[in-house]
Amino acid sequence: MSKPIVAVVGRPNVGKSTLFNKLAGDRISIVEDTPGVTRDRIYAEVEWLTHKFTLIDTGGIEPDSEDIIVKQMRRQAEIAIETADVIVFIVDGREGIVAADYEVATMLRKCKKPVELVVNKLDNISLEENKYEFYNLGIGDPIAISASQGLGLGDMLDEIVENFNTSDDSVENETDIKVAIIGKPNAGKSSLLNNLSGEERAIVSDVPGTTRDAIDSYVQFGEEKFLFIDTAGIRRKSKVSEEVERYSVLRAITSIERADVCVIMIDATKGVTEQDEKIAGLAHEAGRASVIVVNKWDLIEKNDKTMNEFTDKVRCDLAFMPYAPIVFISAKTGQRVNKLIDVIKFVAEKHNMRIKTGVLNEVISEAVMMKQPPVEKGKPLKIYYVTQVSTKPPTFVFFVNYTNIVHFSYQRYLENQLRQHFGLEGTPIKIIYREKKDD
Fold it and tell me: Is 190 annotated in some ligand binding site?
């Protein structure tokens, strides 16, 4: 199942970005004293105890402002509210309640989702009593924190993750192969979905950005059931001016999170663009199996070298995911769409592949004999033992004498050996190194 989404909302300058950075463990959002600095939602993966969730930092809400930037930030927050499983409503404990807080509280009460009221900037015990004023918002029990000092964050996170255990009536069947169709607007995502499902489930238009939301379609091919998630197209930031397009980006990211396999749509008439690279990077970083689909191949003038030349270009531009197979199709005519189904099934199997520990160690021992590890800092690398700890993606732990002497080139060699021996095509793999000293 996908990770829960937690949205941090509130009016400008109450400390949302400071809290976000503290939880994300990095200075991702710009933090300034000027209200309204955070213009775009920022996303991060957060882990607390045994729970993992996606955290969204939003622009501030000022319900009565007609300022265009504030209106956009308000819409961003509304979008985050629509999408989130849990909402963290931050208020300023030093300033106290202001009129905008009441209006934001009214918005949140209508959303019928769990809301945690967090009173920020309570930097010492003498200020903690300030939180009681916020009972007047009618949101629930206020939680006192200081985001800048890191005070009270454990109690706040405990309350947040308590909400993750609620039942979900729309639980997806874990045996289905979940496929996110991602790509720029007008790359042919909706046409592909309609071809696969055999009906007009998604609006097909030549106007980029027609698909505003993620559309789920259950399709069965033979014995296999697929859940296809058609996402709204992801645009370049400079073109994401319409608030609904910001929503599209969020939906695409959450769709990738839900998926086992990402179908990355490339428009053959335009080639691989910088935005295509970024979209593919989202799937790669999320650890999803991927298939690169070059669509509109019927519109390309071809000779006997065209496909090979285009493949070389894709491999060069998407060099970070050499494992992803490339399929040339026409979603409009149906050319090679059946082949795509077989490739999706294949990469889904590899993504979920588990390898016996004995066989794994035999392969790595042989690989080390064939190519000895380089000596780093005067120390030879020793690999004692290898085990697979999880799937989706296949994740391996290598127990070595020193983790700081594992050279990048040798890491790549070991990964290539795993791929060659076990046919791990279509899926990223993750290798973790842990120290185990000689007895």
Answer: yes
Return all residues near 223 (Cβ < 8 A) that are at least 6 apart. none
pLDDT by residue (tens digit) across 72-112? Answer: 556 656 766 777 889 999 999 999 998 888 888 888 888 88
Determine whether the annotation assigns residue 183 to a binding site: yes
The strand pairing partners of 229, in sequence order, are: 180, 216
Q: Give the model confidence (pLDDT) of 21-48 as tens digits.
A: 888 875 554 444 444 434 444 677 888 9
The answer to the question of whether 14 is labelled as a binding residue is: yes
In 83-167, beta strands by DSSP E = 86-92, 115-120, 143-144
As a whole number of angstroms, the distance between CA 87 and CA 275 comes to 30
Contact 90, 118 (CB under 8 A): yes
- pTM of this prediction? 0.65
Task: Give the model confidence (pLDDT) of 204-216 as tens digits.
Answer: 444 444 343 445 7
426 is in an annotated binding site: no
User: 93 labelled as ligand-binding?
Assistant: no
Domains in the chain: ranges and CATH: 5-165 (3.40.50.300), 177-351 (3.40.50.300), 357-435 (3.30.300.20)
60 assigned to a ligand binding site: yes
Q: Determine if residue 59 is labeled as part of a ligand binding site.
A: yes
